[in-house]
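FAQ
Q: What does a multi-component entry look like?
A: The components come first, one per line:
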Amino acid sequence: MTTERIDEVVQRAEQLFRDLEFRSVRKWKDETGGLAVGYMPIYIPTELLHAQGVLAVGILGGGDELEIIRGDAYYQSYICHIPRSTIELGLNGALDCLDGMLFPAICDVIRNLSGMWKMQFPDKLVRYLDVPQDFDPEIGGRFWRFELEELARELTARGARPYDAEALRESITLHNRNRAIVRELYALRQREPWKVPTHELYLIQRAGLVIPPEEFEQVLVEYRDAVRADQVRTPKDQARVLLTGSFCEQPPFGLIKTLERSGCYIVDDDFVQVHRWIVRDVETTGDPLQNLVMAFLEDSIESPTRYIAERAKGQDLVDRVAASGAEGVLFCAPSFCDPALLDQPMAVAAIEKAGIPWTAFKYAENNGQFQVIREQAGTFSDSIKLWSGEVAV
Amino acid sequence: MSQDVPRTLKTAGVDVGSSSVKVALMVDTEGERAQLVSGQSERIGRRDPIQVAEGLYQDCLQEAGWTREDVSYVATTGEGDMLEWHTGHFYGMTTHARGGLYLDPEARAIVDIGALHTRAVVMDESAKVLGYRMTSQCASGSGQFLENICRYLGITIDEIGPLSLQSDDPERCSSVCAVLAETDVINMVSRGISAPNIIRGIHQSMSGRYLRLLASAKARGVVLVTGGLSRDVGIMRSLQESADEQKTPIQLRSHPQSVLAGALGAALWGAFRVRKLATQGVSLSLKTAV
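Then the predicted structure of the entire assembly, as tokens:
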């Protein structure tokens, strides 16, 4: 009987997730006097920032509780929602606690947002973090290392501790532990999805974006131990689905809960990818910065934002469906998300060829009505449960 | 690897609608027609739907002489996914299609007239949904709208059908908007139009909407009316007359247990899932013994 333990840790995570004033970041700064630097989805090497005493703060938009007043003036109606809410957060002062913002290469919109940030916040560190699309260590590797060294120097110039290899090694070790627990939770959810509801796992991962990795480790351990020990939750007869397309602008929290309520067990997803971008432990011996570089080149997940040279687009999705035991795929992408929606036809072709059922819908992070999606996901779940494999009645 | 499943299963269907809860307990024996052991419906009123469902489920178990442990699968539909004790949840169109086919094996479409929505579902002979259409946000095709009209006329919902049959000169009513239709009704009352003629006019207006819904879903053949309004003899008469006038290729039918269609369908799908999971060797800790 440990549901109370689970509720406790999940409630704490939800408070962090819903806090658009970033009080945890302000508190950390008051206590440590350190720098806090925000970053957009989907990946930055948080180990490097942590090793320099910087709190890396994941900014995944404003969600469904932020009223957009000025943000809409910056973007046309055919642009996704995350840049509007992010700039709204910047302009309304919610991000004043940040000493800088990093904009990893995702798409043109995020590149554009980095330019706006430079103009709006000229006193802050603003860096568009260009990631290599050539994975040859001598080409992309050298480029990425240079980018990271530049970033380290810029952070130091802003008051962060200078780069120190030993500190980075320790940080990598800590991040490896956190990634391992996240992987463990994903594996547990695949085996027993009723024990690790996706909306809870999502909140836990979101909490990890605004607290130091040491504290995140505690949250992860507490949650993992609580769900492992839980004897109360029992399985329901739900369809196992893989959700894809939500790697940048996140779906409203209510949408995730709606999908679960509609009869779907989400057994794999691409939410909050920063904790899972590197798929295995980063090497801790040798040059730690080079290890980070090599991890990015060789151990990153496949993503629409990343060039794929050898395999066909969509094959990774087919493999993930097989590995997770999913019975179908939900293409759940933000409206106007170029990386997700341009890849979708290729992904659909691949899974159709493999005979995997799918359905698709779009969202914006501030959607509040889910009835149509609920019906769609629910009937998709019904069709899997009743009609896949054999004829009913 | 398949698991052994008893030939006879006891399953439950719980349909939580916006105005009432319906529960069906069924005995499903492989190769035979499933039997309804207990079926009840209860209005929610201003109570908590979860508590109403809980109470009604207990009543049905008592009527059947079953315990909770006897039930292999509790299948919910409608808003029943709120019930923590459900085994699996199915969507309204899936369950009404299955329930409709159970009640009338010749049915190839259903029109489910609920309190908030109406939907037309076309299915094949195995209850597989082939297409559906649903009313939009507008309430003028729903049971809730009819309940509002009853309030204006000072009658109960049970009186509305028989009164409709007494009509001799139906008064035409707005068929587009519930708000306008309600205004129409208030005007009719002040103009001294009799209740039967007002109600019949409304029934005709609603029937037109349902027939358009069925036509857009490409319904053919026998159509079973399900949902709360299936008990309304006035709407049934009006529907059939309109269908005949328009030479629509459908034959409308109702069934005394049409209101339970969703719950029946859920219970039947529950039994189906127990067997299907067993053939797949999937364990959900579902109780499979009678």
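Q: Is there any commentary attached?
A: Sometimes. For this entry: The domain at 1-21+168-235 of chain A is CATH 1.20.1270 (Substrate Binding Domain Of Dnak; Chain:A; Domain 2).
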